[in-house]
Amino acid sequence: MRLTSRRSAASLTILALLLSGSPLPLAARTDPSVAGAKAAPGGSQADIRPWLYENSDVPIDTAWRFGTLSNGLRYAIRRNGVPPGQVSIRLRIDAGSLMERPDEQGYAHFMEHLSMRGSRHVPDGESKRIWQRLGVTFGSDSNAATTPTGTTYALDLPQANQTSLGESLKILAGMMTDPNIVDSAVDAERAVVLAERRESDGPQMRISDASRQHFFAGQPLADHAPIGTVATLNAVTAAKAEAFHQRWYRPENTVIAIAGDIDPALAEQLLKDNFASWQDSGKGAEQPDFGEPDAKAPATRVVVEPGSPTGLTMAWLRPWKSHADTIVYNQDKLTDMLALQIVSRRLEQAARAGGSFLAAGVDQQDISRSADGTFITITPTGENWDKALADVRAIIEDAKAAPPTQQEIDREYAQLDTALAIQVENADTEAGAKQASDLVSAVDIRETTVSPQAALDIFRSGKPAMTPQKILDCTRRLFSAGVFRAMLITGKVEAGQDQKLAAALAAPVKAATNARLADKAVTMDDLPKFGAPATVVSRTPVGLQGMESITFSNGVKLTLFANDAETEKVRINVRFGHGQQAFSPTKPVASWAGDYALVASGIGKLGQRELDDLTNGRRMGMQFSTDDDAFELQAVTRPADYKDQLRLFAAKLYQPGWDPAPIARVKTGASVAYDAMSRAPDGVLGRDLNWLLHDKDVRFRTPSKAEINALTPQSFRQTWEPILASGPIEIQIFGQVKAEEAIQAVAATFGAMPARPDVPVPAANKVQRFPAHVEQPVILRHDGDKEQAAAVMAWPTSGGFALTKEARQLEILTQIFNDRLFDKLRSTEGAAYSPSVQNSWPFSYDSGGYILVTSQVRPDRVNYFYSVVKETAADLAKTPISADELQRAVAPMRQLLMRASTGNAFWMGQMEGSTHDPRYVQAMQTMSQDLLNVTPADIQALATKYLVPGKSWSAVVLPQGVAAK
After folding, report:
1. 573 three-class SS
2. Which one of 83, 522, 685, 866 has the minimum C-beta count within 10 Å?
């Protein structure tokens, strides 16, 4: 079972367990003609365990049908109808960058690229087009990834049947057994991989490389990044690539997981038909030794990366060992997690209080089968990193000095237990794509998968051993055992930093005396009290069958969709006020600080710590965001908790807290982020592009350092207090609730609040603008690599509901535009790795929409980028697209709509704003027809209307002192 958050099925704050669907009888799914399960010596057929569980005593997840072909290829197949019609395939090759020889760095990743181009049986690039015709979206439904330990090919095939699944498995088999490794393909893909490497190069990549080289010094992982080096990539030939392929792309190194809406027996037969004949001559390579942490390597390192925020990482690294994945082993891992979560909560509380560090956290990770490590990461407040280091060390020392209280253990146990229980509740809506990915990930780390119920049972049965003394023992081991390493990242060169870091770590440390969290009994009764419940003044059907629109006597409106589409899941969205339109386009305010500080500032007299305790062990939360025409509080909860979730949201609006500590924290975080934005072209675009595309509307501007520093708790409250107290309230509840009870719950919370005043939105706030045409790109500068640049071109469209059909069909036009640029700029020329075309159409505004093309490029390819973009735009306007090209854009969009529409989140998004503007309902009801009933003539007309050269706007981000060519 997988337990750590970096490698898990369920990404939670500290817990991550590999979870798969509910068990089914294994006997009903066993094919006696397939090898792959071994009996214990002297055992009976009942003792047979599938290949994934051979060294484990955890309960077998019998929803999977396991087998091994005679050539050694292992597979696992299961039925899963989420989403309906889709079949997900994950094919993993046990070959990553750690399997490369010194002169082969980057070859595993290069082979991934070559394989995705096709095979000798499928023309170059044709596999992408075949899958598009079947409804597959390139990049999301079909993709691949290479890590230090493996390469995984992913395909999510919508509306799969015997023919399409058979064709897809045939293509995948050709990619693995007989890829088109010829010099022309190698040369073409070399340009693509070098472009990928160039675009990923920058501060983060350099820090990542330095971290890997320091923490894993003396091990292969230190010098084997999957992307490779420029020298080794330039040296790739077809013969060298073929040699790597023959050593590693072999059936015995292959695992295939299939989960989807198809008969497992049929899928198994199709897999055999296409992969059973895979035979490789000769002997494959032996698995290399990944080494152990080297105690003789330097313990500390200082890395200077100009402009980067200061950061510290400490690690205790132990040799990675392959363990029998037993129940006891997993219970011990869970106990370790609980111990780390106790420490993390103490660190978070110290950071919230405004101490010497903005953030700090602890984690245990098994890194690339190379080390079992405990890691501490610290982001100091300001440049006084040695004070932050001392304070964190003191908290860790306290955790090692004495056991936690039983109350602390119970708090973290409740959180982990709830997380696992939620997975049990939602097991029948777990997507097949996730299950297939999780299984091959378990293979990667040499562990297993279990059903949600089995994971919960294993956790609960281990509770008696989770004593204060056991937690103390775990804590001491996690923060003492192994080879110690520490690294400081700083943006400034200072003399003596290495010695200062070594001295700070060698200094005696005294256990903190104020780190432990006091026990506070907090209940829902501690929330502010509301008045008398409202009455229902209207209740009418709306939108889809089963949806209702309810209006209460105080003006609150509710869109309710009570259904069982997602078991034990309730989605709540509270929309209030006027969102972005509440702010002036010319007068900046502290709107940027709201996303974090509004939630963290508490409710009434309850701070974030008390709210954490109030919701611990329950499925409750609070996410805040600003939409075009409303502010939003969102959470995914469950039937047992949704009524209290409504109380929590209503209390936030009724009696918000104004704790000043989150303001200091958000200011520090914003300053740290701002300083790093100028170091790379994508950072500059992230900072400035949205503002420039809206003709310098201040609502879209990143605040300056001066504005960040000027923010005070008083000015923050002055901005947000009237917003929380005024404007209409629209509540959406979609999920497994009883309609009458949900209406009563809203009446007793939001309905029990006084009627809210409304402030009309000024006409100027309802306008979005697009910048005027420029003949030459606006020039922006970054302070990073001289070989990196980014180019942008955009054309204005419109907004609102008057042209809804055009707004929808622009999605098809931009997809075709994107596909052509991909084929030209990436696949053919290698000039750019990730060109992107987007359609932005604001329905809440009557203007301000645009089509946007962005890409990173080399400075000497900027002019070429613009020539390709302009030529492509002109051709779309001049020449009708072919029926096949249209089909390859429409089919994936149709499947995307079909899959999305099976969940409540999709319909909730479409119905946002419908209680005050019925046009949202109409747009939802015509979406499919508007989007998919499109002709080549329609696409040409849209391109002619909107891709007008004389209306375009462009910008380029260049390195300091470098001109575009």
Report:
1. strand
2. 522
